[in-house]
Design goal:
The chain is 79% helix and 4% strand. It is globular and about 65 Å long. Strands 1-2 form a two-stranded antiparallel ribbon. With 224 residues, the chain is mainly alpha-helical. The longest helix is centred in the middle third of the chain and has 33 residues, at 59-91. The structure holds protoporphyrin IX containing FE.
Length: 224
């Protein structure tokens, strides 16, 4: 690794910027995933054909999945390191002890906890759906996975649906704060623009978190 890259990664601001970039890219993935999930409301064939076509991408899909794992993994590892460093710094005597003094708000303080909920959600989510019950169906003479059935079966349970709504709430809180603070990590926190950036973060969080939650509730109603 070149000296400049090592110095960048070792610096706290360099790591913050990597957390910011990976977080924003993950926000982009969520929009694409939400758009795909809307097809669950259109019907079983529409959703199954969409999932089938994605899987037909073969190696390209593996590259995209490896990219996602790298983004999630990198974001998580760097965020954990940052949280730990802040905790250690807070324990030191010279550190200002009150919340506002160390630039922390309720929203920023909850980031590790909402992040943890998202991590647990994600591990279970992939086990439940990607590696979940496998059914087959035939659409227009083509045999494919009936992923729609796997999803509908899962959301038939009110408990599973409630867990998703809670996890989506955590994701909305996490992304609304993360969105605005990513801009701050690049020093783009001009008083003139910051209120606008914060509003965009909140609108994004409500649209995406609320969108996923609404889909789960509608699927519950459909499948119960
Ligand atoms: C309404 C809520 C959601 C539903 C119904 C849903 C549905 C699904 C389904 C059916 C799959 C399996 C796709 C396949 O194997 O082809 C999947 C994969 C995945 N989902 Fe979700 N999802 C939801 C929310 C989320 C959220 C909020 C996140 C992120 C925080 C997320 C992240 C992922 C990831 C990373 C994968 C694996 C992608 C891959 O490896 O190809 N999902 N989801």
């Amino acid at each position: 690794m070149s000296g400049a890259v090592t110095t960048f990664l070792r610096s706290s601001i360099g790591r913050k910027q990597l957390i910011a970039v990976s977080g924003l890219l993950l926000c982009g993935f969520l929009v694409a995933h939400l758009a795909g999930n809307v097809l669950l409301l259109v019907g079983s064939d529409a959703f199954n054909i969409y999932a089938y076509k994605l899987h037909q991408l073969g190696p390209l899909l593996y590259v995209a999945e490896a990219g996602l794992v790298a983004l999630f993994g990198g974001h998580l590892a760097l965020a954990m390191k940052l949280t730990w460093e802040n905790k250690v710094a807070r324990g030191q005597k010279y550190y200002v002890k009150n919340r506002t003094g160390r630039g922390e708000t309720i929203m920023s303080a909850t980031m590790p906890y909402t992040g943890l909920i998202i991590l647990v959600f994600l591990v279970l989510h992939i086990i439940q759906f990607k590696y979940g019950p496998y059914y087959s169906t035939e659409v227009d003479g083509v045999m494919m996975r009936d992923l729609y059935k796997t999803v509908i079966e899962y959301f038939a349970s009110p408990l599973n649906t409630a867990w998703y709504v809670v996890a989506m709430f955590a994701a909305a809180v996490h992304t609304s704060h993360g969105f605005a603070s990513s801009f701050q990590s690049f020093g783009w926190n001009h008083p003139k623009w910051m209120p606008g950036v914060k509003s965009i973060g909140v609108i994004y969080a409500i649209a995406v978190g609320g969108g996923f939650a609404l889909i789960t509730i509608l699927l519950h109603v459909k499948g119960a």
